[in-house]
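re: ur question from earlier - yeah i can do the single chain one, its not a big deal. heres the input i used so u can compare w yours
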Amino acid sequence: MYRDCLNGNVGFDPVVFLFVFAGNTGERLGFYPLKPAFENPDTISVNDANCTASPLNLCLEMGQYIDTIFLPPLPDGYDLSWARCCRNEAISNIPSDQGISVLTHIPGTLPNNSPQFQNLPSLFICNNEPFNLDYSATDVDGDSLTYEIVTPWTGQNSAGWGAHANFASVIPQNPMGPPPYNNLNFLAGFSAQTPFGQGNFSINSQTGLISLTPIQEGLFVFTTSVREYRNGVLLSENRRDFQVKVVECLPQGTLPVISHDLSGWSNSGNDTLFVQSADSFCYSISLFDSASADFVEFFPASSSLGIGGAMKPPFAQLSSSGKNPIQGEICWRPSCELAGDTIPIIVGGRDLKDCFGTNQVFDTVWVVVLPLKQVEAGNDTSICVNGGIAQLQAENAYRYKWTPSIGLSRDSIFNPLASPPTSQLYQVTGWDSLGCPTRDSLWVWLIPPIPVSINGSDSLCLGQKGELDVSGGLNYLWSTGDITPNISLIPNQTTYLWALGYDSLGCPGDSVWYELYVEANLPLAGFTAFPTEGYGPLEVQFQNRSFYSSRFVWDFGDGSTSQLSNPSYTFLEPGRHQVKLTADNTIGCADSIAVTYIEVWSPKWYIPNAFTPNGDGHNDVFFMSGGGIKAIDLSIYNRWGQKIFYSRDPSFNWNGSTPSGQIAPEGVYAWHIVVFPWTGDSWQRSGTVTLIR
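and the output i got, formated as tokens:
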């Protein structure tokens, strides 16, 4: 740390307590006392002989506190911090009662070293003179660095923990708090971005070069930050507080003159150079001052020359000879990664007799690194799953490498044959003649077998034509040799067929098999019937005599049907009935037979005109004969008109007795009958019958 030994009221602390916090939670994990590594602090000399009429009243001391501490691994790392109060009362842009917080972050999983600043801070700068300070840092890990102006911190965090007027430093009795820390308040007319008030003030984010032109004298504080990134991930931030005095300086000499010469190289306006990446070039540069007795020198002022840590090597190299004038040469071989970028090479020049940081001149050459010629892998392609081969064809490179090598005939030629086991993304890296790589990729897609299906007849009767069609592809091939989607055939036995389907690339799908069953035993219909004639209702029993049949349909000729194997059926209507039997099997092969001899007689009846109920077994009862009659309504009367017998049964028998069971006398008896046939309308008749004993 640095101490203003002129305006500061206290010396270096005898012990500095470094507090440790968990990076993710801010939990205070402990503290470590650090003792000074010096008996007497180092005094930073001030070289102001060329700047001021009289020696400046400035004093700066540097002290180091060094120790080694061991911390166990922690996924989110650690924050290490310390705080002190208060700042010098002589400072012009901030209140003196505000302290300072110092913080560093240790990443949890990555080994890391903090950036190291190259130059000591300047103790003074000249008022109303352009001033430049190289604030750049280096990082041994090669991490990328960026720079910015930030707001200084006070000695306390947002919860009020830290150093303050009552406790000038953080100690175990007045512990440090975890970040975030409070921003410092500036006096009116000043801010973090304008710490010198009016006037230019900036920092180059890539080089760390601070440029300013102060317009008032005083003692000023400002803070810069350097952030380090690895693969785009922020690792840490390091801040540096500056206290610098602005003073009136002697008039400086004339500005040196700096120039370059790009002749012999492809350029535009002698300030823009066009080169291929990995191609070396050199151009000359010169610097002189009109005061021939003064010495001049070059200094790097851009990240392309290796300052600032924003770029990766190789860097442009600056060499020079002479004192005034001096001749220099810039040589560079831009890396392949810079292809397509435009990078400035900025070289500064100064008169060593002038005040440090003032009267500087800069020369800028814009280097346009032309884009690399892109290797081209070619278009995505598709091949058949089984045995397909793709011819790859890369171009626009001097040397090639394909990855992965699986399925490739060779991986180091521009046109290997590819037959991967599955769909594969191939990347080709192509190097140009200077060794710069570009990459491209393509897919080799494996087309899976298209699913095809056969539809249509699956069972045929012998001699029947089958219709089959295949779907799912663009083109087809049948085992019969046909190439159309639809085929017809009349097989004489059960047949097995296959079909192949082809997609638009001609890739065959898996063959699909189809069994076409042929039934050789055709149904043969036959039956018998009993009886085949009679009065209605005539019940006929049918006996099925069919062969090779499993399903039956009977048609009884009057609109009635049956699916029983051996049905019985009652015919009511008089007439001749045609009976038809259709027999088939489970696949629809059918046969039929028709019979036309089922005869239903028309209704008939007969009533005798005399009977002899004498018990001799001959003509003992009065009855009605015939058929086809469903019911009757019969009444018999004696000579006096008395009803002596009644029946509704067509099979009635009157034995010549009265209702009381007495024997009726001989004589003539009248009868009246209403006849109800099974079909058709009823009719009625009247007559007489003679009872003879």
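The two ends are 165 Å apart (CA to CA). not sure if urs matches, ping me
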